[in-house]
Design brief:
Helices cover 35% and strands 20% of the residues. It has 294 residues and is of the alpha/beta class. It has one domain (4-288): Alpha-Beta Barrel (TIM Barrel), CATH 3.20.20.70. A hairpin with a 6-residue loop joins strand 4 (50-51) and strand 5 (58-59). The longest helix is centred in the first third of the chain and has 14 residues, at 28-41. The relative contact order is 0.18.
Length: 294
């Protein structure tokens, strides 16, 4: 076990959760507030997607990212900003011509997918090392696209959080590290429970964690009802943890969480009950060697 555990809060995501929970942040102001509140509850990192304020649907509009980031930076919060780069990878083959994307396809160029990172220069951004069936669509991240995105991310001094959903994704992420596209120490995020990825079980996390290269940092999370069991499992295996309304809407069986901060508070309690402590944003920056630290 680690003495200090870094807690990430994924505050909104891009899933179809608006309307299913009254506290899902939608507007830039709501998303920024949720991130700040998560930091006050003990999170060192806020993982951020943005949504169209008018519809609640996921968005890649840089105006919304800019608004969120500026609000957090203008506040008294010290929380580390982690912007998603996962958007822009969805492919749904057309019924009559599978070479053409059907409605709902969001595939974008790799440069477009990291344009908000290049402009806003967050300390961390996600880099999904996955091409996989995700529910009923394909989540597409080819090695060439990942190399292009990784180079852009590295050039602006942002730390990529290497999101891996299956065993082969860990191997691909390691190749990016070996090729010098990812600065040391690399940071892996093991995602569990998404259809059709590794299941959210202790066995799956334990095996995946053994494949993380020596000297790298890793975190893991499970979605839905497995969020908190996987918090405990990650702590016991020596990893960091993630919670938030992106991944789970409930604080307990049948009980909606009040907000993101409530999920962070429960994760903090679990970490401490297991004998570890919570890393502050400053400690997380040093541990992960983020921009400006030694």
């Amino acid at each position: 076990m680690r003495e200090k555990v870094i807690v990430t809060c994924a505050v909104t995501g891009g899933g179809d959760t608006v309307g299913k929970h009254p506290a899902i942040p939608v507007t830039p102001e709501q998303i920024a507030t949720a991130a700040i509140e998560a930091g006050e509850a003990g999170a060192a990192i806020a993982h951020i997607h943005v949504r169209d304020p008018a519809t609640g649907k996921p968005s890649r509009d840089i105006r919304y990212y800019r608004d969120v980031v500026e609000r957090i930076r203008a506040s008294n919060s010290d929380i580390i900003i982690n912007l998603t780069c996962g958007a822009g990878g969805r492919y749904i083959p057309g019924d009559n011509d599978p070479k053409q994307g059907a409605p709902g396809t969001t595939v974008a160029t790799p440069l477009d997918r990291v344009s908000h990172v290049v402009e806003l220069k967050p300390e961390i951004c996600s880099l999904d090392c996955a091409t996989m069936n995700m529910g009923e669509f394909v989540f597409m991240n080819t090695p060439g696209h990942l190399r292009t995105m990784a180079k852009q991310i590295k050039d602006v001094g942002t730390k990529p959080e290497l999101e891996v959903f299956d065993i082969g994704h860990i191997r691909l992420a390691e190749k990016l590290v070996q090729d010098g596209l990812i600065a040391d120490p690399p940071l892996y995020q093991i995602v569990l429970g998404v259809a059709w990825s590794l299941p959210a079980t202790p066995q799956a996390m334990a095996y995946a964690s053994t494949l993380i290269p020596p000297g790298a940092h890793w975190a893991s999370f499970g979605i839905s009802r497995m969020q908190f069991p996987m918090v405990a499992q990650a702590v016991l295996l020596g990893g960091h943890v993630r919670v938030g309304l992106e991944d789970n809407l409930y604080i307990g069986k049948g009980e909606l969480a009040k907000n993101n901060a409530a999920l962070v508070e429960k994760a903090v309690k679990i970490v401490r009950l297991l004998g570890a402590e919570i890393a502050s944003p400053a400690e997380a920056r040093q541990e992960l060697k983020l921009r400006g630290t030694q």
